[in-house]
Amino acid sequence: MPLHNFSTYADPLDLLRRFVPTPLKAIYRIASLCVMVQTNDFALLPTLLLGADRDAAAGWDLEWKLVRDADSGGPLGTPRFVTSEALTVLEMGTACIVGMDHERRELLAFIGRDVDARTYQEFLVPFLCRMMNERSTANSITNFADRSAVRSND
Amino acid sequence: MDRPADNHALRSAHFRGIRHLVFVTLPPNNFIVYDLLRKQVHAVLSDGAARDISFWNKLLLPITIGVLGTAVGVVPLHCACLERNGAGFLLAGVSGAGKSTLSAALAELGFAFISDDWTYVSREHSTLVGHGLCSPIKLLPDAVRFFPYLQQLAPAPTLNGELAYEIDPIRSAGITLKTFSHPQRLFFLERTPNPGSEFIVCPSGYVKAYFEENAERLPDELPAAKQFRASVIHSLSVHPAWILRTGNGPQKTAEAINHFLSEAVDAIA
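YS: structure for the whole thing
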């Protein structure tokens, strides 16, 4: 099966890359939650336990939409958070922008092309799980980010 | 304090959106989140940016209206807006057709200037209102052929990466600046290699198709915004509209519009 080529998207009327197709889908069990992950890059599918006992028709508790952003390069920057009652947004430069909408139960993210698989799986995925579970608690996530950053630099 | 908002920030602006969220990064240290469903803006700004009036006027407010507008009842349309004798009109055309250059020439001719590139259209009762942001008129480097005084200025990069001269309509002598107008007519500017200017009546279907096909795609999460934009475009489409096909320079084309409006349209009125 040919791999999806995430670098070919171009739509002059979609300057924000809102409509990048995310055809790769899988359902995961993350703690007690059933999470549907959709993405345009196989490398962004988390190496977590699949929810083999659930099918798409049964629904899910939460959705992740992860877009590999072929036009954003560079390393992850220092984490910064913007929070509101409904949102927790994480920005690590243009290499990683994540918005967690707690009311709509969806996590929406752009991951830059230079974020490698190891950094993603070992650093960002735990981060995303934490964001998903902790509502508007930027401080605790920041502390978590600091600890994770130390580990990822080891 | 950081240096004032300048073209470095423009060159490096980064825009991304998924569903109802839009993220804007404005270097060196500003990050803005737009929640189009809840009609909220959240931002982390540097001290320098927060205190810099040019950052607000040249970057943050125009970007905010452009991103959030449709969700709050203001539709951004890629067209200029001018006014002659109290009657407003929109001037549309593909990028590079010469909207800004022609707008500058019309302003020199005495037309009131509202906007040269983006017009923000709202509805007041049954009337459409075209708003401008008092933004500088951006002229591409070759405009110096038609406006020799540009030689005194230096072109600088704009948000879309082009080099352009900027004329501040607030400070430019001879330009009558208005913040809004009620557009009653539309012109669609087309370049032709043949000299002369001709006005071709265009049907409402053309107006509708033009604006719908050139509008930014909106996600399904924003049905009200989609519906509002469609209703504004429909309302625009019932106004008289012409394709303006011209091979002339901006000053001659501006004179042709002035003549057309004074003779043809005023006579009908």
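YS: worth flagging: The first strand of chain B starts at residue 14 and ends at 18.
IM: good catch. Also Helices of chain B lie at 7-12, 47-51, 53-68, 99-108, 204-214, 223-237, 250-268.
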